[in-house]
Amino acid sequence: MRGTRILRNLYQYQNTTQSKEPELFPGGHSLATKRDLLNYLIKNRQVQSGEVARVLHTLDRALFVPNGTPPYVDRHQPIGNGSSMFAPNQNALYLEFLHDNLKPGMHALDIGSGSGYLTACFGVMVGPTGRAVGVEKHPELVDFSVQNIEKSEAAPLLRQGSLSIHLGDGTKGWAEFAPYDAIIVGWIVPEIYPALTEQLKPGGRLLVTVEDGLSVNQLVVDKESNGNIIVRSKTPVHRVRTRGSNISVLPLQ
After folding, report:
1. What is the CA radius of gyration of the chain?
2. What distance in Å separates the CA atoms of residue 17 and residue 4, rounded to the nearest whole number?
3. Is the pTM of this model over 0.90?
4. 77 vs 28, which has greater pLDDT?
5. In angstroms, rounded to a whole number, what is the distance separating the alpha carbons of residues 127 and 116?
6. Of the candidates 178, 177, 186, 170, which has an alpha carbon nearest to the alpha carbon of residue 202?
7. Cα separation of 88 and 30, whole Å?
8. Residue 212 to residues 87, 170, 207, 253, Cα–Cα distance (Å)
């Protein structure tokens, strides 16, 4: 019944807010529940698909933030070691951009997995027949993320082995479970690392934020069936550091 109510809210908001500007998040105040947060994201059109609505309802963000941290505020949350957890609107945006690449049975890679929240979202979406992999360079955050997942609805996936968190250098991806249908990099990088495009499955999608010296660009990287790499950005790209001759840079439509 709860899932039906969420999808009903999604339908109602999509059909009543098309011409309205998104509402501002309520300043420094925290919403009371994950349902309030989800309704806010739906109302502001950051959640637009049933799949993303379901996973955000299934996984409680409160289980993935440090003790004493308000979980339902739409901003980045520090989690230690100089790292932070994406704001809820960013989580929703990334899941929407990737949701066609997060179908049951698919493989997904979360580089810089931090709190484990997005990796857990990947795991719930690809299910027990898929594979969700998180790679984190800080041992303390690997332990933190595993503890968080063990408290969540994704715990059975962790025990079964279709969801895993690994200590490692994310610039090298994680070849063991490649190729991946979806990859996300959770920090600003100087280039699109070759290992990530190599481990991307034809038809797969990579989300990465690249600093080119003049600006920071959020990039959508798609791998075509012939192996060509198409890089798209909503903002003008002055320069994208890549290694490979089969890479094209296009505007994001």
Report:
1. 18
2. 20
3. no
4. 77
5. 16
6. 178
7. 12
8. 23, 19, 16, 21
